[in-house]
């Protein structure tokens, strides 16, 4: 299960677990447990973009927040730059926090409307480098703004003066001002219009190359993820079901859930006709997930044996991991079909 | 001011197979700083069994157009609607919804034309059982008693693929998943067998696998009922999948309209071209690291529009003196292909 990458990774996550308290099943009975993340392992190499994809409730955002240690994990370990940060307290975490920053989904809710751009973008400096002189602070804010394609003159403005795409640029500038090594972007383009979404995706790729950033990109949009990632990890109900280099995942998916997910994405070309795999029903409740493989209740290839054991994530081709007991399947490619 | 004409030229009636004709529809909102023109001179027709996709980004006027058709926009004087919206009702009569008295409009909504919204949780009433919410429309329009209406509601739930429909009648909205709620919304919309269904981003809030289920459902229901559908979306993948014809809106105006294949295969308006190029495609993903062709800038402020073509400030083919002189008219590039761009002949010929 370990050794997902041979060279030393910037981030190593092993068997990560995060449980939340659910409802009480009855009076005086202990609360149920929502196993939001239930044994997730992956690595991110330096300079790599790893995407975490999944549908709502898959636990992908919880992984992001736990890795950032905005939450304390209930099991497993997180190593960042070789140091174990799994159990560190607030003060001990501080030097790590500046090296990993977050970009939020909603560029409207994540910027304080009463603060100027200079205050917003410079806020991380106030926390991590409070001794920065005013002139230096101003220079760094302007540098961060120009990095994301905004003008130094924007520093005096307020968030409402910007469009959605520009606001997301502000969010990225704020995340970059401390020159972090790892950027965790949780659905950063989902709230944006298509034409603007492309601007922000391009910006992130450009920044990755220019600054050597490592990015954990969390998204439900497989097409966007296909553009931005080096590798993709697919989550379903708190577990990873498949991890592979982008091209391999799309061309030769190995897990039935990945196959279904890929086939469900509509292709913007009316001449492309594909066989669509329509999954029956909804994602089961994480309060009471199915035994064995969690996807088996919606899987068209499920066997009785799938209910027995949760399948381990194992390497089936170089760098290509899957958690499925069936090796006899020929799954549909998202690329060959086009 | 130019006059946009839909391909149909019938003056005040509908051709036999047409369900809806919208002519020169304009919708303006009164604000503290003057009237905000949200939709201008929109014209189109819709035949039985046909699906028209209305595409555009936020602020393009696509949702306001659909709300205006059913007069769900605020009342005068806060909102002004001009033009014609001719709808053929269940009884075969053609009514102009722009001038119809409100009392009659209430009969039209739900019976002749129904709407499904993006967010099923906010469209359903959280304190009523879903059976009663479905039955309400049937009781109102068809005068059925409660028991008969609930029977019909159960049948509708079955039609939209909800398992165990009898038991589900007594569920509350919060007990259902997002996909199930959207199925309930569709059941309500279809309860009186409308001629026209307006679906405003019905799958945008749903996961892709659930979106696939809902698109499948809508397609099956449409085959069965031959209703006309206006599908509003910003997702070009969904458009390619479900639309017969596509209407692209930008800054409140129609900028291109065509059957789905020519629109995707040979778009003429630079905005449509830019939109298609800026969409990441799954079937091409991971092939290379070329950048997506983003459209620079963002949509214009509706209260301070640029002179001439609204798209000119973002357009790669902008030509000073031509593009910023006057709003280009919507012209026929082909019998079914309308485009609003002064340079479309050059674009069509491939000389620019």
Automatic annotation (TrEMBL), chain A:
A GO term for molecular function: ATP hydrolysis activity
GO biological process: peptide transport; transmembrane transport
ABC transporter domain boundaries: 11-262
Gene3D superfamilies, per the entry: P-loop containing nucleotide triphosphate hydrolases (3.40.50.300)
Subcellular location: Cell inner membrane
Pfam families: ABC_tran (PF00005), oligo_HPY (PF08352)
Keywords annotated in UniProt: ATP-binding, Nucleotide-binding, Transport
Lipid bilayer topology: Peripheral membrane protein
Family: Belongs to the ABC transporter superfamily.
Designated name of the protein: ABC transporter ATP-binding protein
Organism of derivation: Muricoccus nepalensis
């Amino acid at each position: 299960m370990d050794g997902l990458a041979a060279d030393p990774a910037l981030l190593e996550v092993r068997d990560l677990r995060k449980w939340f308290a659910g409802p009480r099943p009855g009076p005086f009975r202990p609360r149920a447990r929502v196993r939001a993340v239930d044994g997730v392992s992956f690595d991110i190499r330096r300079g790599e973009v790893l995407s975490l994809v999944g549908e709502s409730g898959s636990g992908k955002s919880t992984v992001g927040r736990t890795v950032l240690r905005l939450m304390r994990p209930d099991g497993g370990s997180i190593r960042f730059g070789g140091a174990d940060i799994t159990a560190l307290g607030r003060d001990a975490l501080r030097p790590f926090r500046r090296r990993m920053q977050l970009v939020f989904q909603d560029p409207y809710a994540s910027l304080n409307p009463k603060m100027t751009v200079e205050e917003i973008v410079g806020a991380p400096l106030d926390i991590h480098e409070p001794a920065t002189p005013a002139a230096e602070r101003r220079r760094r804010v302007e540098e961060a703004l120009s990095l994301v394609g905004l003008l130094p003159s924007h520093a005096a403005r307020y968030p409402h003066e910007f469009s959605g795409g520009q606001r997301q640029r502000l969010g990225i500038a704020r995340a970059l001002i401390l020159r972090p090594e790892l950027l965790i972007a949780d659905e950063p383009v989902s709230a944006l219009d298509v034409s603007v979404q492309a601007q922000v995706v391009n910006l992130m790729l450009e920044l990755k190359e220019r600054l050597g950033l490592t990015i954990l990109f969390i998204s439900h949009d497989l097409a966007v993820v296909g553009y931005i990632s080096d590798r993709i990890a697919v989550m379903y109900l708190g577990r990873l079901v498949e991890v592979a280099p982008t091209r391999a995942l799309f061309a030769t998916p190995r897990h039935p859930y990945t196959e279904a997910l890929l086939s469900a994405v509509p292709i913007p070309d009316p001449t492309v006709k594909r066989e669509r795999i329509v999954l029956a029903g909804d994602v089961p409740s994480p309060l009471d997930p199915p035994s064995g493989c969690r996807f088996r209740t919606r899987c068209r290839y499920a066997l009785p044996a799938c209910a027995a054991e949760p399948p381990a994530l194992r390497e089936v081709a170089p760098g290509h991991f899957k958690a499925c007991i069936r090796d006899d399947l020929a799954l549909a490619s998202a690329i060959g079909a086009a | 001011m130019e006059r946009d004409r839909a391909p149909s030229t019938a003056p005040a009636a509908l051709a036999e197979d047409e369900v809806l004709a919208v002519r020169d529809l304009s919708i303006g909102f009164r604000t503290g700083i003057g009237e905000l023109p949200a939709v201008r001179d929109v014209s189109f027709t819709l035949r039985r069994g046909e699906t028209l996709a209305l595409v555009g980004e936020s602020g393009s006027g696509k949702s306001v157009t659909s709300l205006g058709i059913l007069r769900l926009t605020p009342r005068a004087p806060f909102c002004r609607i001009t033009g014609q919206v001719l709808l053929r009702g269940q009884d075969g009569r053609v009514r102009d919804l722009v001038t119809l008295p409100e009392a009659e409009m209430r009969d039209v909504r739900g019976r002749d034309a129904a709407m499904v919204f993006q967010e099923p949780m906010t469209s359903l009433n959280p304190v009523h059982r879903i059976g009663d919410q479905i039955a309400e429309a049937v009781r109102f329009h068809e005068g059925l008693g409660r028991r008969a209406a609930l029977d019909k509601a159960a049948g509708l739930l079955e039609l939209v693929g909800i398992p165990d429909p009898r038991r589900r009648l007594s569920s509350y909205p919060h007990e259902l998943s997002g996909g199930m709620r959207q199925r309930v919304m569709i059941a309500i919309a279809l309860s009186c067998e409308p001629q026209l269904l307006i679906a405003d981003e019905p799958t945008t809030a749903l996961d892709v696998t659930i979106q696939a289920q809902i698109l499948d459902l809508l397609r099956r229901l449409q085959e069965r009922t031959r209703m006309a559908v206006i599908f509003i979306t910003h997702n070009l993948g969904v458009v390619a999948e479900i639309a017969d014809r596509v209407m692209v809106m930008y800054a409140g105006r129609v900028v291109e309209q065509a059957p789905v294949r020519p629109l995707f295969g040979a778009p003429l308006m630079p905005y449509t071209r830019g939109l298609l190029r800026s969409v990441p495609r799954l079937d091409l993903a991971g092939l290379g690291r070329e950048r997506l062709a983003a459209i620079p800038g963002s949509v214009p402020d509706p209260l301070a529009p640029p002179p001439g073509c609204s798209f000119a400030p973002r357009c790669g083919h902008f030509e000073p003196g031509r593009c910023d002189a006057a709003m280009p008219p919507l012209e026929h590039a082909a019998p079914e292909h309308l485009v609003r761009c002064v340079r479309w002949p050059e674009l069509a010929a491939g000389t620019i």
